[in-house]
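Annotators were shown the component list below and the corresponding predicted structure, then asked to write short factual statements about the assembly.
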Amino acid sequence: MERELLLLGLLRRQEMHGYELHDFIERYMQTCVNLKKPTAYYLLSKMAKAGYVTETEEQSGNRPPRRIYHITTAGEAQFQTLLRENLAAYHPAQFGGLVGLVFLDEIAGAEARPLLQQRRTTLATTLATIRSVPPHPGSMQFVIAHQIMHLENELNWLDNIIKNLKTPPGPND
Amino acid sequence: MERELLLLGLLRRQEMHGYELHDFIERYMQTCVNLKKPTAYYLLSKMAKAGYVTETEEQSGNRPPRRIYHITTAGEAQFQTLLRENLAAYHPAQFGGLVGLVFLDEIAGAEARPLLQQRRTTLATTLATIRSVPPHPGSMQFVIAHQIMHLENELNWLDNIIKNLKTPPGPND
DNA sequence: TTTTCCATGTAACTCGTTACATGATTTC
DNA sequence: GAAATCATGTAACGAGTTACATGGAAAA
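Structure shown to annotators:
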């Protein structure tokens, strides 16, 4: 339902076609949401069938026609419902990659260190990317701030684990 | 691969049957992993076919026989591989429930407040549950500490958002 | 002229869940 | 005697992804 909410929320502000919608999300919201193209197209046609949006074709030259989506009254009502549902519920974040740490004991510190450092690098890169995102309007800013905070915490936590590895760092670390 | 790693890691320490394995995970690891029964059974028989574990039936009375799983040499190798893969990769956490906050502007503060407070309550309950978990051995403790830290941050962040809602709290808040 | 962008979609697949089905045994 | 626990599984479904397929238009 989350992605429906997202699409409806964007269509409320402005009618758009599928490619445009997906492109917008990729460009400006990739730090907090992700929605692949086929999913976007699928959801849009589904919502069209459900009557939440209308589908208008617009030809330009010989290329595939744009399908422009416009939110309906029913869609607006659905948006309001989904928004309230979403705000009221807490969906715990799904962490991947914790299981390895459960078994960190089973591997020598000297071997674990470079692996965790590799993980650290990816994490730090992600954080740097989000930090460099230009400011966004409205409460979107809260969400970006949330992501930054989250990643900073992850980084600190990971650094702490690396620091506490039993084997001391080698001369290259 | 995460759940395979988990099962192999547990079977390394001690041979177990499916029900036992699932039960153990539910009891002692529910704060950081979740694995439903059918998934556990499915994964175990898959890994048996793959040769990572052996399956031994053990009858007791008239009840369904226990299928006891024992890790093989190939399984041990697979565990080592999966563990290294898992430690080296950073899997960004999947946040559900952020989309609503993107559209927080679209709803009056007076209406948003009780919804977010409901969310807050669930979150706080989750946090309290994890805090009350008895201490775990080994690096499992790191993971629990991670969950606690994460939830504390979430709570702070949410409180901050609630505090900054434009409409002031009513007499009941 | 080759690459990138625009614009759409289908089909197959992955991973995991829920719901359903069965029945013995232990505990209250 | 009823309820919870032990012990296994299958079938259907859900949500989303990847890979594949197509082809015009703009930019390099």
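Statements collected:
1. Chain B has a mean pLDDT of 92.
2. Chain B touches chain A through 57 residues (CB under 8 Å).
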